[in-house]
Amino acid sequence: MTTGPFKATIQSAEELRSLSSPPSELVRNKAISRLDHHCRDFISKSPLLFLSTSDARGNCDVSPRGDAPGFVYIMDDTRLVIPERPGNRRYDSLLNIVQNPHAGLIFIIPGLEETLRMNGKACITTDPELMEKLSAQGKIPQIGIGVEIEECYIHCAKAFKRSKLWNPEHWPEEEELPNPAAIIAEHARGLKVTEEQVARSLAESYEKRLY
With CB atoms 3.0 to 4.6 Å apart as the test, which of 105, 111, 144, 209 could cross-link to 118 if both were Cys? Predict the structure, then answer.
């Protein structure tokens, strides 16, 4: 079936399932609903996670959260808290959580191709005791994202193996990397800011407003 700008789109779960064999018994049974010692260990070694949220209408957003390994505070077997460090103040994830608590997380450890995925319900907390536990570099965050875990499991390494993400031999040369300052200046051209102005602003933000 063709709908919208794409051809031959799939419209049902039955259509989708018909394209491949069912997941293995191991895959169907690997998810758990608590943070066991394996999950806790993984989180303690992860310096980076990606947080997926959506608003009341289903508009989605994914954003990274990162700090020193162990920056996420585990409260108990079903609850964790992510510190909200200074960012761009758009508050995309936070505004989504206010409307829709459902959230997904992917924890990443450098060099490890498997990731830890979680789904649950999120909230925004300003609990002073929790904020104290989330302090870093002498700074206490104003806000934390609390997540009540409903499902967690290890995601296989195929995407990382195909991308060769952790293999420096496959990394692009520095001069081939995209230029964020140039991109932002072009995207915000209505403000008539230059690449150099954006680069200075980014550098100041990274130097003075990480915490």
Answer: 105
